[in-house]
C-alpha cells in the first residue's frame, strides 16, 4: 500500500477512534488497534530521519497504549529505538511507556507499590479487559 | 467585503485529495448545520484573517436539513464544521493540502503540506470552532497548543466563528522542536 493511501486510512481511523473515545464506547479500543497498525505500516514506509516517519513511530506506540496493548507498545519501542535517528525520538518513545506506567500508578496506587512496572502494566490490561473477578480467577 | 471569489465547501476533497471521503462527508454536513443554525444561508460572506491580512469571500455549501441536527453532538457540529471551513480557507489562502490527521498528543489536528521555493514544507494545523461569541480567547489557547507541535516547519492555529461567520488563521513564530 502506498504512503498516500496509508495517510488517508490513518486519518479516517484516528478520527473514528477519537469520536468513539469521546463517546466513551468500548469500540474505541479496537479502533486504536487499527490506528496503531496503520501507523506501524507508515513507520515501515517512511524512515525515522523524516518528520512523518517520526510522527508515525510515536503514533504507533501511543495508539497501542490507547488500545491497552502495552506489550505491543513495548515491542514497538524496542523495534524503533535502535534506528530512532535522534535522541529526542528515543526519549519520546520511552517517555510514552513511562507516562502510561505513571498514569496506572496513580489509578492503582496499592498495586504500584507491590508490583514491578511491567507487571503492573500487564495486570492493568487484564483488569481492564476482563474485570476484577475474572482477573482473580 | 467579499473579494469576488468564493469557497465552495462541496469541493473540499478536490482541494484536499488525501482527506478521507467518509470524514469529509460528515465534516461538510456539520459545517452546514453549524452555519445554518446561526441563520446563515449558502452565499454568506465569510470574513477571513490570515496572518493579519483581512479579506472576504462568498461561502457556498450544500444546504443541510436542520431537523437532522439532533442526530449530531452539538459541540461536534461546531468542531467538525470548523475543520471543514478552516481546511478550505487554508487551501484557498496558502495552497496548503492535507497530508494526514494527527493524534491529539501531536498538539495539532492535521499535518498539511505546501511548496515554498520548490521545497516541501510541513505544517501542523490545529483547528477549533466557536458557535457564538468572540474567537479571541480560543485563538490564544489554540496557538499555545499548536506551539508544542514537533517535527514540522510551521505551526498554525485556525479558529472559525460561526456567528459572523469568520475564519482566522495565525502562525506560531519560531522554529519547531525537531526541525
Notes on the protein architecture:
The complex is a heterodimer of chains A (137) and B (179). Chain A is 82% helix and 0% strand. With 137 residues, chain A is an all-alpha fold. In chain A, helix 1 (3-22) packs antiparallel against helix 2 (27-45), helix 3 (51-66) packs parallel to helix 5 (87-107) and helix 5 (87-107) crosses helix 7 (117-130). The longest helix of chain A is centred in the C-terminal third of the chain and has 21 residues, at 87-107. Chain A is flat and about 45 Å long. The model of chain A has no long low-confidence stretch (mean pLDDT 86). Chain B is α/β, with parallel strands linked by helices and 179 residues long. Helices cover 29% and strands 31% of the residues of chain B. Chain B contains four helices and eight strands. The longest helix of chain B has 21 residues, at 74-94. Chain B is globular, with a radius of gyration of 15 Å. The model of chain B has no long low-confidence stretch (mean pLDDT 93). Classes of the chains: A mainly alpha (137), B alpha/beta (179). At the A-B interface, helix 1 and helix 3 of A face strand 4 of B.
Which descriptors would you attach to this protein?
heterodimer, A: 137 residues, mainly alpha, 8 helices, flat, B: 179 residues, alpha/beta, eight-stranded mixed β-sheet, 8 strands, globular
Share in β-strands of chain B? 25-35%
The helix/strand order of chain A is HHHHHHHH
Helix percentage range of chain B: 25-40%
Largest pleated sheet of chain B: 8 strands, mixed
**Terminal residue distance of chain B:** 39 Å
What Rg of chain B is obtained from the alpha carbons, in whole angstroms? 15 Å
**Which class best fits the helix and strand makeup of chain A?**
mainly alpha
* Whole-number count of domains of chain A: 1
The sequence of SSEs of chain B as H and E is: EHHEEHEEEHEE
Topology (SSEs and partners):
The complex is a heterodimer of chains A (137) and B (179).
Chain A: H1 3-22, H2 27-45, H3 51-66, H4 70-80, H5 87-107, H6 109-114, H7 117-130, H8 132-136
Chain B: E1 6-8, H1 12-15, H2 21-36, E2 44-50, E3 53-60, H3 74-94, E4 97-101, E5 110-116, E6 119-130, H4 136-146, E7 154-161, E8 166-171
Parallel strand pairs in B: 1-3, 2-8, 6-7
Antiparallel strand pairs in B: 2-3, 4-5, 5-6, 7-8
Helix pairs in contact in B: 2-3
